[in-house]
Specification:
The structure is a homotetramer of 261-residue chains.
Chain A: E1 12-21, E2 24-28, E3 31-35, E4 38-45, H1 54-71, H2 76-90, E5 95-109, E6 116-130, E7 133-147, H3 149-154, E8 161-173, H4 180-188, H5 201-213, H6 218-232, E9 236-244, E10 252-260
Antiparallel strand pairs in A: 1-4, 2-3, 4-5, 5-6, 6-7, 7-8, 8-9, 9-10
Helix pairs in contact in A: 1-2, 4-6
Chain lengths: 261, 261, 261, 261
């Protein structure tokens, strides 16, 4: 049925499965990770075929994951590339892409008392194949804050402060080695202060001090993310966005920018 | 089919429709309102019947809404009661309940420059009928902030501040007149400062001043909501909850309490 | 403070407010509409300025909405254009854009019994100004269904059926008149059957018959949306996407395509 | 500051942290699991204290998780109980409760071709301590489907089908051993057919056959969940809910019931 000619001859860019959750195990830099990412896998469909074979997409995912269970190696993007390669054996396409979106937990130390905390970041990676040419799009979402420099100036050192989320996206060639951890650092260093899951009183004082010593608009945070990423990475298209959940308003404020290196 | 005996004889408390969105027009205190609420309408099902007649639930909603279009009067809870009365004519039940959840936009003045702003609140009302006895549950969700008194004490007047959401629920007899606007006031007055959609510099200075003059934990805000509601309403069960989106942490903090008047 | 030179000289594409909810009244084709849309308004920021003046963005919205309250005319996109024009008087920019996202309720008749039902659609419109040149992006989201032709073929007329959402986006010049209602028709006509809030038994039989007479993959629905839109509109870039919430899987399947007319 | 007397003397039932995400490793029935659950931990606050010590809640979580990393044993509920015991050493309370909400991935075989698939379920467990008495609330969310018996009867074997979600909650004593896997079975067996991540054509035919051989209203599914749970578990309060995403309507239909064993 899928291979029949369709009534309407129109090629489609992206056909596939989305919101598929399964277990993916990786072994990256000799550390084992278990993820339950949300997965989207799509390919293009030419105008002469009615449909794609959806079950082959899911099989490509499952077979690679099983294989990874045994060999337990590689990063999320290596698993994704192997899924696209497996899919190529099962189903024709010119363009295919796969995205995995998950949480990454990283150990940190609090600034003064040095307690170990586990901090959780949103990460995602898309690997695309265009006629055999592989590229990737890496994404991290990091929680931090903004501290209004305008109010601080007008209110004799007092100001309003709020939670903010910084997002950094990097589009680059598949072989350009970029770690999520380095991308997360670019965003965390852009905020007035990092945030922590545990803060003892001495740590909390330090965070409040850093916030007030380093007030930043949402625009400042986005520019700092762009600047940090420009200094750290090469041969990439960089996008940054910050969303500030204003404590003096019901709405959020945002700032977005892009650059290339 | 619905009236057949089911294989498994088990009564069900709540059967019906949910996430139904439609237009509801009211005329409350001589002001016309158009809402597109999300509606849930359920009734109980006894153990001897296989199913309810879902289309009669939707007809009860539609017929009352059409009628309201003509007569354009009443509050959301009056519309809800008329839907339950209409449903009673169409379908047997012992217990039925209907909830409408929507946005309420209220004009305000900014604190110093007196600019008019439109502020939006989440509101919901459930009317329940138990063997002909009507009760209601009113709910408001209001955005405000928390300002940490502990950090302020330890950091010489500096502190961390964040957006917070205050929720007030009131369960009472159907005939107990309670306005959403009064419930919203109970919550807004409980925060260190109200928030506004527009703030000119002089207004913003005032908000920052109020925040610092009036630091409050999430626990303090919840207690203030409870206290404000106790002083304002009668013959009611009151529930309050505050969620603070910490600017120094990735997670939120909460405080919940209840009381009766 | 906002007009100072920033430490990092990097221009930003989109700076502004988001998730702002307020009341917007329109009078379109002599029918009055009250919406409470979610609004995003952004402008670009050049590399030599530290920040934008956020309150002027909100003032531009508020002043136009107040004016609309009095004159009560125009469509959502006319309100949006007037907000961008107002903003131009208050704040310099090269590029600015405003999006309003809301629900649109449209009366329909059921297919056999002809009962009136109110059907609710997700709609959004973005108006962009680039150095004074206005364009728009219209978006509708419509609930329908998919009916698997492959299973129907293999299972002697039986198949699996599921809810699906069709999305149509049209990017075109500001002056190109396109009604949400026509866009909604393009999507609803692409499904195996339309869906209705009320269905009496005879209506339900008709819907089930149409589903089985007209089985469609998610790919078929997307192609039909594209084809319907190509036949209806001119001078536009068209994007279609269908998301099918499979009843035989935990995950969804999707199909996306684009074309130009 | 937290130990001061508050201005408003009102006890609070639940004060604590929510939406905290961190890594939790368990070793249950000799299988290792890595979860990144969303955690809520709250305790009660008496009327004479201004606030709780939030950082001690987070420390209790972190210290138990670290310990579990070493000893790698126990189930999620055992980890939760150890956190409440640790908290008791650090902070006074009468009532405390902790909830972890996560995904559980379980291997399955497809019905005809016997392919291995990984199926993902939403699970949560809350452990409560009331003056030293421990109870728990287990929760599973399972995707399946409903198949309308009414339409099938009226349309000569044809009907409408849709995705549905079944939810089973069990409240019982802490020592009552109940496996998530058994709860999931109670829900999956209640649907017209199970759903699978991969289905080859022969499997899909079997699923479509089971759907049509076994049509069920949302009410039927909820009753079957209740019945399955009554037959499987003891000394428990059982709650079941099914949400059906109708393929002929924009809205969902629901059925909820409870029973005790």
């Amino acid at each position: 049925m899928q291979d029949k000619k369709p009534e309407i001859r129109e090629s489609l860019e992206r056909v596939g499965v989305t919101r598929l959750k399964t277990i993916v195990m990786t072994n990256w830099k000799n550390r084992k990770y278990n993820f339950v990412p949300e997965i989207e896998l799509t390919l293009d469909l030419d105008r002469e075929r009615k449909g794609i074979h959806m079950s082959r997409l899911v099989e490509s995912i499952t077979e690679c994951i099983e294989k990874e269970v045994e060999i337990r190696r590689g990063s999320l993007e290596e698993v994704e590339k192997s899924i696209l390669e497996k899919l190529k054996e099962k189903h024709p396409f010119n363009h295919a892409e796969i995205t995995m979106k998950t949480d990454l937990v990283v150990p940190r130390k609090t600034p003064i008392t040095g307690k170990t905390t586990m901090e959780t970041y949103g990460v995602a990676v898309k690997v695309s194949s265009d006629n055999g040419n592989y590229t990737k799009l890496l994404n991290v979402e990091v929680v931090g804050n903004t501290v209004c420099p305008h109010a601080m100036n007008k209110c004799e050192g007092r100001t309003h402060i709020q939670r903010a989320t910084g997002i950094l996206k990097i589009e680059t060639g598949y072989d350009n080695k970029i770690d999520f951890e380095d991308m997360i650092d670019c965003v965390e260093d852009a905020f007035p202060s990092r945030v922590y899951t545990i803060l003892k009183t001495e740590d909390e004082k330090q965070v409040v001090k850093e916030m007030h010593d380093n007030p930043k608009f949402v625009e400042d945070v986005t520019r700092s993310i762009l600047n940090n990423a420009k200094n750290r990475f090469k041969n990439a298209r960089i996008r940054a966005k910050t969303i500030s959940e204003e404590s003096i308003h019901r709405h959020d404020v945002i700032a977005e920018g892009t650059c290339e290196v």
